[in-house]
Amino acid sequence: SDESDWEVGDLELGGEAEGGLAVPVVAIVGRPNVGKSTLVNRILGRREAVVEDIPGVTRDRVSYDANWIGRRFTVVDTGGWEPDAKGLQQAVAAQAELAMRTADAIVLVVDATVGATATDEAVARVLRRSKTPVILAANKIDSERAEAEAATLWSLGLGEPHPVSAAHGRGAGDLLDVILEVLPETPREATTLGGPRRVALVGKPNVGKSSLLNKLAGSERSVVDNVAGTTVDPVDELVELDGKTWQFIDTAGLRRKVRTASGHEYYASLRTRSALDAAEVAILLIDASEPITEQDLRVLSLIIESGRALVIAFNKWDLVDEDRRLRLDKEIDRELARVPWARRVNISASTGRSVQKLVPALEGALESWDRRVSTGQLNNWLKDVIAATPPPLRGGRQPRVMFATQAATRPPTFVLFTTGFLEAGYRRFLERRLREQFGFDGSPVRINVRVRD
Ligand code: GDP
Ligand code: GDP
Fold first, then answer.
1. What does the pLDDT average to over 308-334?
2. How far is the centre of ligand 2, averaged over its atoms, from the C-alpha of 32 (Å)?
3. Contacts of 42 (CB under 8 A, 6+ apart)
4. Which atom of ligand 1 approaches the CA of 166 most closely?
């Protein structure tokens, strides 16, 4: 159901989205004044020194994009909140609980010049049963002489205390190394990009897939040799378009037509699925001269499931007259309402009309598919949207959106941390506004909601 799609209670923020680049989350916890904010600034190298609070959205949590020796991660600072009537120990323990559910690594910051307080001990008790790795930072060790003070923190039962001076930078590099060691490996962007972009040409039988491929491969040189450093499956084909090489997936399957009556549809859908798996972007061919059919929509569903970027090519445009065009517009409104973001091109594979428009459409869609919005930008936008249109009450309670982060690209995947359920209508509203603000034309966008219980 719609609801279960959205309620990703066991979502692993650090988990790699299919083919995507997940960014792991590091939560910084500890009682007030131990130096959490100072440490976050140190981790960010003060590059993102705009350590502004984001009122309304993240009363108690602020998160930032960080990068250490080429590894990206998100740092979540729990420093902004004020201890209230609930009591300090309980508040800090609650922060630790939240960190355990949402982060890939937790850094507990303790003021080593003070030693372990009752509050530190209470948090440590919570964190000792954490499955998420916990790193103990013994802060305010400003000199070598002070290092002995860190050793007393072994008593917290969280392993080795790592001496650091957030204020002066002493030991910060070592601490970051330890943090990265426990973080899940994330693929680097450079290794996943760089080769030819992979395109799946999909659509029901007879829409013109092989005609289009012939036109594309014939209009310009079809690259026969392997491009250096790439391994191309022999069933794929490298095609040069506008001076750039593209890898069309399973072209052998497109050319070798199996038109047996029984089971044809089933095998066609298997082949479509596997082509989509291997691809980054899909061109969905639809016969513009005929009504959009159930079969077209089944292929569309496979594309949506795959999370690939999408260009819709309305083929056989040479057969489309004014009358058909008006009817097609209505069909598009009705049948393709699920993918208002898809890029559309009207082409004729026979005459070659507008086929060159496919290239900018593919490039734009891939650009959206790869795009990352910084956590700062995202939360600034979220703050404004929520201030203007707060989530509707549920059971008399106002759900609060604490913060958002883009957990993955390819496709862009966002996680909203909330204190209550967000209704489907409101989530769709957020997606619309997100697209208005940041684009993502041609790419699906996933929004997961994590409800803090
Ligand atoms: P938070 O409440 O945990 O976020 O703590 P802050 O980062 O706001 O720091 C609290 C106080 O401790 C500030 O006055 C900081 O300047 C100071 N502080 C933070 N790190 C260090 C450190 O490494 N050495 C010393 N001497 N002071 C620090
Ligand atoms: P596939 O099964 O999707 O690979 O479709 P084909 O490329 O084999 O095309 C099926 C039929 O549609 C062939 O007879 C093509 O000549 C015809 N066809 C393909 N593209 C166009 C087009 O743009 N205009 C017209 N009029 N016919 C086309």
1. 97
2. 69
3. 166, 169, 172
4. 23
